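Q&A log
Question type: sequence-to-structure
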Amino acid sequence: MSQVSFDDTMEKLAELEQFAENYAGNTQGADAKALASCYLFSDRYSGGLWEKVGIRKDADFERYVKEQDAGLSSLKEVETLSVPAGYEVDFLHMAASLYVGDDAGGWIGDLTEFAWELKNNGITEKENAAARFLSADSYWNEADFYADIDAANMRKTYQRNTLSETLLTYYGKDTDSAEEHLGQFVSDRFFADSKEELEQAVFSGYRTHWLTQELLTAFELDASEDQSSLKLASDTMADYLYAHAKLPETGQIETKKEELFEDTEFPYWSEDTAGMVVTDETGQVSGAGLAGIAVLLLVAVFLFIAWNRKK
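Response status: OK
Response body:
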């Protein structure tokens, strides 16, 4: 199944979530949100390290759903979902990114993959990178990109609500558009007055994410040697956001900064260093703590997502 109606999908999703609530209410230790979410994408993303981050198929729940309404299995086959705002999203990728709960499984990871794609296709010019970006030939196609954007925008709402409630709230505003959703993404993350400043802000946000270095290693990219591909990928995303994002406050990207990223020093980042994560004066990753334990798991999650999309 490639494409289904939004309303039909929401109706089936709400029914699935009700079955999950009923099942969890009678099953010790069961979590309704996990049951419903994993039912959707555990066929696509399954086994091994997926289970370590809580994505696992529950055979008993699968049988329960089949007994209640076998037609709900069609949710597992949804590839792209046309949303009321007028564009398409990769539904299962968005749901998985929401469930994992980190941008490494969304735009941070996909930007790294896009840099790898540019490098391996010998793309070095902005014009050619822009033509590749969001195209059907790219792993980072339009439906995948908007899945990343929307998952990032919905993450806080999803923490307090079911998936169907989250989607209906986010997509339920008649006045919303793709441009406004892009604007929300920009407004929540970046401060910029111009396209050049937005390019700098996006790249700063990318390079200082706590999993960037691990993702680079996973994609066999080097922060120094491949910096041109990484910056080109980041600038391509930033330029698209600048051209299309409509900010809530102003209707366009203009003054919204408190301090420009270009005025911020990153002493452990240069063309001569392979490190792309923020470190303290001792050279240790800032705020590592328990994060170190989760690094390999979240990287593995993104790589499984990328690998499955390439199949």
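Response note: The longest helix spans residues 6-25.
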